[in-house]
Amino acid sequence: MPFAFAPVEGAEGWQISNPPILAMAPVRVSLALFAEVGLDRLRERSVRLTAFLERLLDAVATRRPIEVVTPRRPERRGAQLSVMVDDAAAVTEELFARHRVRADDRPPNIIRLAPAPLYNTYEDCWRAAVALDDVLA
Question: Which CATH architecture has domain 38-136?
Answer without folding.
Answer: Alpha-Beta Complex (3.90)
